[in-house]
Specification:
transmembrane, transmembrane helix, 4 helices, about 130 residues, binds zinc ion, membrane, mainly alpha, Zinc ribbon domain-containing protein
């Protein structure tokens, strides 16, 4: 499974869900007081259902992300002297988080830890363990 990383879009999804849960039903409710319509009652219900679905789906996504982060964290705590491949040509030192590590580096230029030879993992490989 792909690594979930909601840090850049999580707040927008929460905001979208809240929009359907509070302001839209409130506006429809106020409108309903002036124009009594069965359609508005259904629209209020539909908006609350959409908002609930969006928030629950994001909650599930967040649980998956936290589980993945926990798995990576546990692995890296026990394997501090490895490099993790982030993307093509970019590696991260698992002892200090230095992201300027190159594939051929034998030790970290920041913390000085010596890397285990040929021990390069990707996030996907750690998640599959
Ligand atoms: Zn380091």
């Amino acid at each position: 499974m792909k690594k979930v990383n909601s840090i850049f879009y999580g707040s927008y999804i929460i905001g979208l869900g809240l929009l359907f849960l509070i302001p839209i039903p409130l506006l429809l409710y106020i409108t309903k007081r002036y124009f009594c319509s069965i359609f508005l009652s259904y629209a209020i219900g539909a908006s609350i259902v959409i908002g609930t679905i969006v928030e629950c789906a994001f909650g599930i996504l967040l649980i998956i992300e936290l589980h993945q982060d926990e798995k990576i964290q546990k692995y890296c705590q026990n394997h501090r002297n490895i490099k993790i491949k982030l993307e093509e040509g970019k590696y991260e030192c698992q002892n200090c988080g230095n992201r300027m590590v190159k594939e051929q580096d034998e030790e970290c230029s920041i913390c000085g830890i010596k890397y285990v030879e040929n021990e390069i993992k990707t996030i996907q490989e750690i998640l599959r363990m």
